[in-house]
């Protein structure tokens, strides 16, 4: 049977596929981010210290950062729906291990595998989303897929944490397994079989790791470092500098979460219009929001506005950066799809570590100032990378190789 013509899906079918991909990333994001909210419960149940339980977060991040690109390279020649179903099946099994075992070492292994499966799923989902829409709407398709992560942070994690406190953390992970299984069934039933395109691993890697692509990945690394240097320690900042506590802190964080969801959906439109310029404007706005947060941290109303801006502009740049990486990678776009998530996780690690050092040496405001320093660096890198162009006319003017193959072109 010939491959379906994914390039001429009806608008309704296209949106249905994107909704399924959104559900997939929502579940993946919730599973990744839920552990900190239940860390004390998991540590007590596993009979380990809080720092040891924190290694479950690190294990997932390392699995995503290293295992995601490795699995993407190994499966580069497989159809994308096949990759998605295999990756989600691995994700389901890894999280089922968390529900059924009490062995800490096995937990670490399962979190690494879950992270690797997540990285592979992200790359495949983005490839599918990019292939089923016209070239001029690719940025918006990417933003729909990626927005599952921001919505998981704004909605999935708070609800999952509440469920964990009420029913136990295993109940939360059981729900994640069920949702992931439903997403798997939906992918099998709805997502078209997008064929593999482009060359082999060697050919893909030459383009995916080209200096022009690495430069934009470096931007993403600094972007996440800037956001998480401040965000990781935003609760002590709100308590010590702004003077709010309890329920008010939750409201501040809810405002930030809603802003990230809004930003992730809107970022795709900016990517389609002018991705390079969008990164410059977004990084300037990010730096400004962190500076206002630092200088006006004692004024609650201005803090809310700064957090809203931080959420909108910080998250809006994520689909723009993904779009920029894919277009600059050209024939290496399939492998390049997996790299932004890896660099983002490394940036999160750097930002949270640097913010922790700053707050330990000085005060809660120092973490925000550290984030501002990283944000200033993103402005410079965004400007420098705005001059970079895709290789030839392959990506700039033609549909993706996967889409051409699906349409039966030679």
Tell me what you see in this structure.
It comes from Amycolatopsis suaedae. Helices cover 81% and strands 0% of the residues. It is mainly alpha-helical. The protein has helices at 11-33, 39-46, 50-74, 80-100, 104-131, 138-167, 169-190, 201-208, 211-231, 234-242, 247-295, 300-329, 333-336, 339-361, 364-385, 394-397, 401-406. The longest helix is centred in the middle third of the chain and has 49 residues, at 247-295. It has two domains: 1-196, Growth Hormone, Chain: A; 199-410, Growth Hormone, Chain: A (Up-down Bundle), CATH 1.20.1250.20. It is globular, with a radius of gyration of 21 Å.
**Residue fraction in strands:** under 5%
Give the overall shape, derived from the CA principal axes.
Answer: globular
What is the number of strand segments? Answer: 0
CATH superfamily of the largest domain: MFS general substrate transporter like domains
Structural class: mainly alpha
Indicate the low-confidence ranges by residue numbers.
1-6, 393-410
The domain count comes to: 2
CATH topology of the largest domain: Growth Hormone, Chain: A
Second-tier CATH architecture of the largest domain: Up-down Bundle
Instruction: Let me know the largest β-sheet.
Output: none
Total helical segments? 17
GO molecular function, one term: transmembrane transporter activity
Keywords: Cell membrane, Membrane, Transmembrane, Transmembrane helix
Protein name: MFS transporter
Pfam families: MFS_1
């Amino acid at each position: 049977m010939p491959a379906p013509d994914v390039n001429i899906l009806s608008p309704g079918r296209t949106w249905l596929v994107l909704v399924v991909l959104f559900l997939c990333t929502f579940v993946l994001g919730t599973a990744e981010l839920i552990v900190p909210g239940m860390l004390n419960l998991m540590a007590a149940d596993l009979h380990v210290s809080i720092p040891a339980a924190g290694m479950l977060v690190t294990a997932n991040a390392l699995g995503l950062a290293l295992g995601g690109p490795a699995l993407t390279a190994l499966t580069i020649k497989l159809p994308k729906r096949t990759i998605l179903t295999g990756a989600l099946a691995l994700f389901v099994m890894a999280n089922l291990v968390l529900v059924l075992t009490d062995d800490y070492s096995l937990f670490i292994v399962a979190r690494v595998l879950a992270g690797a499966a997540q990285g592979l799923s992200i790359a495949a989902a983005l490839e599918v989303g990019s292939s089923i829409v016209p070239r001029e709407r690719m940025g918006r398709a990417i933003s729909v897929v990626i927005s599952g992560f921001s919505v998981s942070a704004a909605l999935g994690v708070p609800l999952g944490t509440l469920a964990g406190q009420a029913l136990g953390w295993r109940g939360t992970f059981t729900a994640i397994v069920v949702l992931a299984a439903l997403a798997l069934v939906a992918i099998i039933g709805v997502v078209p079989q997008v064929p593999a395109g482009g060359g082999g691993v060697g050919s893909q890697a030459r383009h995916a790791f080209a200096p022009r692509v690495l430069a934009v990945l470096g931007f993403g690394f600094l972007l996440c470092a800037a956001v998480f240097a401040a965000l990781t320690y935003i609760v002590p900042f709100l308590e010590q500098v702004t003077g709010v506590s309890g329920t008010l802190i939750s409201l501040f964080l809810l405002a930030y979460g809603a802003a990230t969801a809004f930003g992730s959906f809107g970022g795709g439109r900016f990517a389609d219009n002018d991705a390079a310029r969008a990164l410059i404007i977004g990084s300037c706005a990010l730096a400004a929001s962190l500076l206002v947060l630092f200088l006006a941290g004692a004024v609650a109303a201005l803090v809310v506005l700064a957090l809203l801006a931080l959420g909108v502009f910080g998250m809006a740049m994520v689909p723009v950066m993904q779009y920029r990486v894919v277009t600059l990678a050209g024939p290496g776009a399939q492998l390049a799809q997996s790299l932004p998530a890896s660099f983002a996780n490394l940036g999160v690690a750097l930002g949270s570590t640097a913010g922790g050092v700053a707050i330990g040496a000085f005060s809660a405001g120092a973490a925000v100032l550290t984030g501002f320093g990283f944000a200033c660096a993103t402005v410079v890198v965004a400007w420098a990378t705005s001059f970079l162009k895709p290789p030839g006319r392959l990506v700039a003017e033609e549909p993706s190789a996967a889409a051409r193959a699906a349409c039966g072109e030679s």
